[in-house]
Design goal:
GO molecular function, one term: ATP binding
Subcellular location: Cell membrane
Number of helices: 9
Bound molecules: adenosine-5'-diphosphate
Distance between the termini: 34 Å
Protein name: Amino acid ABC transporter ATP-binding protein
Membrane topology: Peripheral membrane protein
Mean pLDDT: 95
Order of helices and strands: EEEHEEHEHHHEHEHEEHH
Keywords: ATP-binding, Cell membrane, Membrane, Nucleotide-binding, Transport
């Protein structure tokens, strides 16, 4: 489903991704962990080309883009992006649109689909994330957890092959974290392919088929949750996990 090979990213002189290789199978949940500044968000943003890599290649679905020579064309960018749905730390809903208007916006504009049909699909997704009764409300009248659940429904509306989550609960008050994690766990059970940057280690233990530990622009260690989180082999992984205790 996803294949990343020798991926590199630098911002001016700062090399953030040195050389990243990993793959994600259909239906797999991959959690990306590591110290702050290790490049996790940059890697996730590269996967849907919010950042353009400086080298290597990314395959998602049946589309492969290589970045060694030139940046991708607009057409290739749109094609690769159509395979993934992104959920950000700070929900990024349109403030002047209701929950329902927010979630149907992309397929309405990008896919030129009919509003009536989209609203039916929207109802189903809003029920799934527990937001149906809030469908006509505006974001500023909702809690952070509710906004994030609406943002998840919005990403799902495009039927992405892969959902990408960038620390989806780090902007939330502690009591709102659970309701968002529960929705993500539900998606995991349904077999949704996901890559999740997270600091929630208990959550990673529950949902991850694979955990990648990143440090200084490399994936230092990867394995099942119990391999990486309970029995890490690398010194840097051990030190990182000890700091969390
Ligand atoms: P993490 O998600 O692991 O905390 P990030 O990917 O956010 O790490 O950041 C890795 C490094 O890249 C940091 O040093 C950060 O300052 C830098 N960085 C991230 N985005 C940019 C940008 N747009 N311009 C310049 N530097 C950036």
């Amino acid at each position: 489903m996803i294949d990343v090979t020798n991926l590199k990213k630098k911002f001016d002189e700062l090399t953030v991704l040195e050389s990243i290789d990993f793959s994600v199978k259909k239906g797999e949940v991959v959690c990306l962990i590591g110290p702050s500044g290790s490049g996790k968000t940059t890697l996730l943003r590269c996967l849907n080309l919010l950042e353009v890599p400086n080298g290597g290649s990314i395959t998602i679905g049946n589309k492969t883009l290589t970045f060694d020579n030139a940046p991708p064309s607009k057409k290739d960018t749109i094609a690769l992006r159509s395979f993934s749905g992104m959920v950000f730390q700070g929900f990024h809903l349109f403030p002047h649109k209701t929950v329902m208007e927010n979630i149907i916006e992309a397929p309405l504009v990008v896919k030129k689909r009919k509003k009536v049909e989209l609203m039916k699909e929207g109802d189903v997704l809003l029920k799934k994330v527990g937001m149906f009764e809030h469908r006509d409300k505006y974001p500023d009248s909702l809690s952070g957890g509710q906004q994030q659940r609406a943002a998840i429904a919005r990403a799902l509306m495009m039927n992405p092959e892969v959902m990408l989550f960038d620390e989806p609960t780090s902007a939330l008050d502690p009591q709102l974290v659970k309701e968002v994690l529960r929705v993500i766990e539900e998606l995991a059970k349904e077999g949704q392919t996901m890559v999740i940057v997270t600091h929630e280690m208990n959550f990673a233990r529950r949902v991850a088929d694979k955990v990648l530990f990143m440090d200084e622009g490399f994936i230092v260690e990867e394995g099942t949750a119990s391999e990486v989180l309970e029995n890490p082999k690398e010194q840097r992984t051990k030190e990182f996990l000890q700091l969390l205790d």
